Amino acid sequence: MSRLAQTAGLTDVQQEILSTVRDFVDKEIIPVATGLEHRDEYPQQIVDGLKELGLFGLMIPEEYGGLGESLLTYALCVEEIARGWMSVSGIINTHFIVAYMLKQHGTQEQKETFLPRMAAGEVRGAFSMSEPGLGSDVSAITSKGVKDGDEYILNGQKMWLTNGGTSTLVAVLCRSDEGHPEGTAPHKSMTTFLVEKEPGFGEVRPGLTIPGKIDKMGYKGVDTTELIMDDLRIPANRVLGGVTGRGFYQMMDGVEVGRVNVAARGCGVAQRAFELGVSYAQQRHTFGKPIAQHQAIQFKLAEMATKVEAAHAMMVNAARKKDSGERNDLEAGMAKYLASEYCKEVVEDAFRIHGGYGFSKEYEIERLYREAPMLLIGEGTAEIQKMIIGRRLLEEYRFQG
């Protein structure tokens, strides 16, 4: 294991899983990541390798063909994968959130239908909340599902689907006023629909179109798309949990564990940036000695390593809190906020250490510099995290007057 970001108290099984993932990252991801990223090419061979390792079913219960591991194990694996290439961790994480939502909220029939195939990597998940006209204001969703006999008809446009093209199962959040009288709070009239589709772009099933990949500054390779529903019909038994009006809570539960994994991604990218910075600092010479021997660079390395260590500790704490069965929105919000901010800072410091070479596409740090900003907005911006943290603190430290 690397000297930074050690995790105490892991079982032999957890250590074996992490060792296997780390070897895979070092041998199969890091050597090819920059080339794939520059071509914006989907990493099919890497994904196939992760499928063989069983990572698509890491947290799916053993009764459904998964490994039944904890959120901590999963987050530590995500950290390692993001150290290799953050886009690959995004492919896994989006799938994981849908599997988690099914495990926690799905009907027995839905679990039996989807979880075994998700564990095997045969069904790949994506989830969809955002829309073109809203960002963090989930209550402003306009996509709608209307009951029609034994079916629902879905209409609307969704935005920012990770795995939008390659997925075959999308959890889509829509308004559903059926059974909810006028004046009902928006978050109580939302429903999660499980939409099955073919992989690819264009019309992937009648009434459902995935227009194409969104061209992004970074986070390339993984497909990020829109989703357009035009009188899309799905069976009523594809309402997650079998009851309407629970979609907001189901999605927030999924996003909560997703925030732990975004924090893990930030930790992984920051670790890689530190590795690149400390290595380059020992190779690059100025004024007759390696720049690592200049006090200014040593100070920078010390700050970078401290941030990596602190973010990792908070991420582990948030995962363990969730695994214990306790509420962890405060810890997850803090971990996501700190890890994403520190990741940006550590990557920038590594970029500065590289000097002019950091601006060259030949150097890996250039890719990390474009990837880190995505973590500042994914699964809730810093401002949203601070709102969550502030509200929870006021609950815990309520003034008794």
Structural class, by secondary structure, is: alpha+beta
Mean pLDDT: 93
Parts with pLDDT < 50 across at least 5 consecutive residues: none
Number of strands: 10
H/E element string?
HHHHHEEEEEEEEHEEHHHH
Percent of residues in helices comes to 40-55%
- For the record, give the distance between the C-alpha atoms at the N and C termini, rounded to a whole number: 51 Å
Q: How would you describe the shape? A: globular
Number of helices: 10
In this structure, how is the largest beta sheet organized? 5 strands, antiparallel
Query: Strand share of the residues?
Result: 5-15%
Gyration radius, to the nearest Å? 22 Å
What key phrases describe this protein's structure?
single chain, 401 residues, alpha+beta, 5-stranded antiparallel sheet
How is this structure best described in words?
- This protein has 401 residues and is α+β, with helices and mostly antiparallel strands.
- The protein has ten helices and ten strands.
- A five-stranded antiparallel sheet has the order 2-3-8-7-6, with helices on one face. Strands 1-4-5 form a three-stranded mixed sheet.
- Helix 1 (12-39) packs parallel to helix 3 (71-84) and helix 3 (71-84) crosses helix 6.
- The longest helix is centred in the middle third of the chain and has 37 residues, at 247-283.
- The protein is globular.
- It starts with 11 loop residues before the first helix and ends in a 5-residue tail after the last helix.
- The mean pLDDT is 93.
Secondary structure elements and their pairing?
Layout: H1 12-39, H2 44-53, H3 71-84, H4 86-105, H5 108-119, E1 125-128, E2 144-148, E3 151-162, E4 169-175, E5 190-196, E6 202-205, E7 208-210, E8 224-235, H6 247-283, E9 285-286, E10 289-290, H7 295-323, H8 329-354, H9 364-375, H10 382-396
Parallel strand pairs: 1-4
Antiparallel strand pairs: 2-3, 3-8, 4-5, 6-7, 7-8, 9-10
